[in-house]
Amino acid sequence: MPIKTDKTEVRAPGGVGLLIIDMINPMDFDGAEDILPGAERAAAAIESLREAADARRTPVVYVNDNYGQWHSDRAKIVEACTAPGRLGETIAKRLAPRKSDYFVIKPQVSGFYATNLPVLLPRLGVNRLVLTGMAADICVLFTAADAHMRAYDLWIPEDCVASETDPHTEWALRIMRKSMQAETRPSTALSLSAWISDKA
């Protein structure tokens, strides 16, 4: 039976939800300049995937670091990351969350640690996750591990994640494929519609 949330019945098509991890980012950390080219490529692919999600009414959930700002909220994080002169300004503006998107603030690397994500996803009818964002070898990897332990099916499109180096990304994707049975084909080779239909 669909769950009622805000007086609206919510049931994610195929049980699929799209997570966008740490792409709203000031990129003021060590190694940010190294990850920037890959993050920009990933942002373009994520934007296309988000459009496909909109077309299929797939929930879009931003899972974002608080960057040590413990009094922060969604609006303040977006404002800080899109400020002129920020290294991550262009990406943050390109992928800025819309009113209909969900926004989960995380205090540590995993999107499941000390957040409301474990409560939100079941309420949206989500039991399969598409993980995108950065860094593939840190926050995406740890979120994927926690999702795997909670029995979520995973698709981590290799063109929708980025790390400081390509070998780091490839290493993380290998672990997620082998240890978490994650699908890692790029979004150009596997469509969201096809993955939604699979096992639906």
Notable traits:
single chain, 200 residues, alpha/beta, Rossmann fold, 6-stranded parallel sheet, 7 helices, 18% strand, globular
Ordered list of secondary-structure elements with their pairings:
Layout: E1 3-5, E2 8-10, E3 16-21, H1 32-55, E4 60-65, H2 74-81, H3 89-94, E5 102-106, H4 117-123, E6 128-134, H5 136-149, E7 153-155, E8 161-162, H6 166-180, H7 192-197
Parallel strand pairs: 3-4, 3-6, 4-5, 6-7, 6-8
Antiparallel strand pairs: 1-2
Compact summary:
The chain is α/β, with parallel strands linked by helices and 200 residues long. 40% of the residues lie in helices and 18% in strands. It has helices at residues 32-55, 74-81, 89-94, 117-123, 136-149, 166-180, 192-197; strands at residues 3-5, 8-10, 16-21, 60-65, 102-106, 128-134, 153-155, 161-162.
Structure write-up:
The structure is a single chain. By secondary structure, the chain is α/β, with parallel strands linked by helices. The chain has one domain: Isochorismatase-like (Rossmann fold). It has helices at residues 32-55, 74-81, 89-94, 117-123, 136-149, 166-180, 192-197, and strands at residues 3-5, 8-10, 16-21, 60-65, 102-106, 128-134, 153-155, 161-162. Strand 6, helix 5 (136-149) and strand 7 form a beta-alpha-beta unit. It starts with a strand and ends with a helix. The model is unreliable at 1-9 (pLDDT under 50).
